[in-house]
Amino acid sequence: MRRSAGVSADPARPGNGLTAGRRRGVLAVVSAVLAVAVVCAAAAWVLTGRGVAAAAARPRSSIAAPQPAGPAGGDPRTSCTSVAHIGDSTSVGMVSATWLPDAAQRLAAQYRDVGVRHVQIDASGGRSIVEEMPGQQNGDRVASEWYAAGFRGCWVIALGTNDAANVAAGSTVSMLTRVREMMAAVHGEPVVWVTAQTDLTSGPWSEATMRLWNNTLVQASEIYPNMRIFDWAGMVQPGWHLADGIHYTSAGYEVRAAAIARALASAFPAHGQSRTVVVSN
Predict the structure, then answer these.
(1) Is the separation of the CB atoms in 38 and 124 below 8 Å?
(2) Are 204 and 28 in contact (CB under 8 A)?
(3) Is 203 helix (H, G, I), strand (E, B) or coil?
(4) d(Cα 86, Cα 38) in Å, to the nearest integer?
(5) b/e 224-256 (16+ beta carbons within 10 angstroms → b)
(6) Which residues does the chain have with pLDDT short of 50?
(7) What is residue 82's three-state secondary structure?
(8) What is the rounded CA–CA span in Å between residue 181 and residue 62?
(9) How many CB atoms lie within 10 A of CB 40?
(10) How far is residue 90's CA from residue 83's CA, in Å, rounded to a whole number?
(11) Shortest CA distance to 266 belongs to which of 228, 214, 234, 236?
């Protein structure tokens, strides 16, 4: 499903990630993005009641996963020998030599450190599951094409920040529909979904909007037994964000990359089984 671009956050402008833009149809685009596609080698507000915190304690039967890799004990290891990571601008910094000059700190290296042998990453600024910036593929199309090309393995989906903002700005494609589109594209393969978080108090990318998105992920996890949620925002610390309240400093990207890889190992460990919806690292 291909649609024109909605609102988006610009990864290329530290401290000023939002720029004016325009959208076809019902939505007025409140900002535009520099789309940066990277093909190489999450964020959630801590919720209570029926949100992420409650889901963390809910048991979940295990799902079929690839064969174990690595010994039990010691550093965390995952059974996922192949991983496809699809992200937005909050993933661009994790694969960027500008933000992380040391390649060992970048996302691909972090995945390999937990036992992944094959890594493919597509991070694009302003990406959502539904809308597309000029010259960009949305998350649904990337996943569908990778699956059609033969990728089989585990998926890490670090999308939702722009989807939540697009819905807040008036998109008629609901949050749950967006998640369901993405889950359909991976055809039941193991998925870790990184939740969304910002420091903003108003506007489409507000913290309250991200909270609604994260509740939607919890709702979707009740439908998909192959889905796990990584509560990234539960560990975000003051000072990791740039002035725009959405993107991260180099230190933030370093922590984020390592945390997502360790969350993958918790979600689909080399030994034993993950039986909870929300995983930590």
Answers:
(1) yes
(2) no
(3) coil
(4) 10
(5) bebbbbbbbbbbbeeebbbebbbbbebebbbbb
(6) 10-51, 60-73
(7) strand
(8) 23
(9) 13
(10) 18
(11) 228
Comparing CA positions, the residue from 178, 170, 154, 172 lying closest to residue 88 is 178
Residue 112 tokens read as 């390999």
SS3 sequence of 23-77: CCCCCCCCCECCCCCEEECCCCCCCCCCCHHHHHCCECCCCCCCCCCCCCCCCCC
The amino acid sitting at 99 is W
| CA distances in angstroms from 247 to 122, 155, 250, 271, listed in the order given | 17, 22, 10, 34
Taking Cα atoms as reference points, which of 129, 128, 112 lies closest to residue 120?
A: 112
Look at the chain and report how many structural domains it folds into.
Answer: 1
Query: Given this model, what pLDDT does residue 221 score?
Result: 95
Write out pLDDT tens, residues 74-107: 689 999 999 999 999 999 999 999 999 999 999 9
27 is in which domain, residue-wise?
3-279
Q: Can you give the CATH number for the domain in which 232 is found?
A: 3.40.50.1110
pLDDT value, residue 62 = 40
What integer pLDDT is reported at residue 165 of this predicted model?
98
Separation of alpha carbons 104 and 113, rounded Å: 9
* pTM for the model: 0.80
- The first and second tokens of residue 41, run together, are 């080698």
